[in-house]
Amino acid sequence: MSEPIAIASASLLNTEFTALVAESATTFEDSLLVDSQWTRCAVYHVLGHYIYPRLSTFSPEGDVFREKMAYYRQEYRTEFDKILRVGVKYDFDSSGDISVGEDKPTHFNRLVR
Predict the structure, then answer these.
(1) How many whole angstroms separate alpha carbon 25 and alpha carbon 69?
(2) Which residues contact 67 (CB under 8 A, 6 or more apart)?
(3) In sequence order, what DSSP letters do the residues of the chain get, joined into one string?
(4) Contact, 81 vs 97, CB < 8 A?
(5) Per the domain annotation, does 108 fall within a domain?
(6) DSSP assignment letter at 103
(7) What is the pLDDT of residues 68-104, one digit of tens each?
(8) How far apart are CA 69 and CA 98, in angstroms?
(9) Radius of gyration (Cα) for the chain, nearest Å?
(10) Is residue 11 classed as helix, strand or coil in its secondary structure?
């Protein structure tokens, strides 16, 4: 995974994945994630929160970059929630393999405000 995508996915999970990691009594290490699971989510996050805001003029009549920014922010939320529902692949025991119990879903009636 490229460095900006790895940093983005690690920072996202550091804030949103803490409940699952706290449940296992380990500290969060981004190197134990399966990179391919987070590529699309991280790309959407970078596009919606970093790239398109810099390209937008934020004029009152709107511009194409602001519309794309809103679109990719929504796609990011959708993809992130999908990953949480399916199950985050995190190597809790640092064995190098993801066993059946290590990819449990974390979306249990999650309240979104």
Answers:
(1) 37
(2) none
(3) --HHHHHHHHHHHHHHSHHHHHHHT----GGGB-HHHHHHHHHHHHIIIIIHHHH----TT--HHHHHHHHHHHHHHHHHHHHHHH---B-TT-SSS--GGGG----SS----
(4) no
(5) no
(6) G
(7) 999 999 999 999 999 888 878 877 777 777 776 666 6
(8) 34
(9) 16
(10) helix
Task: Report pLDDT for 29.
Answer: 77
- Domain holding 24, by residue range, is 3-102
pLDDT in tens, 14-37: 555 555 555 555 577 778 888 888
Residue 65: inside a domain? yes
d(CA 46, CA 81): 17
Task: In whole angstroms, give the CA distance from residue 113 to residue 104.
Answer: 24
Is 110 part of a structural domain of the chain? no
- Specify the residue for token string 């985050």: 88
pTM: 0.68
18 HSE (CA, 13 A, CB side) = 5
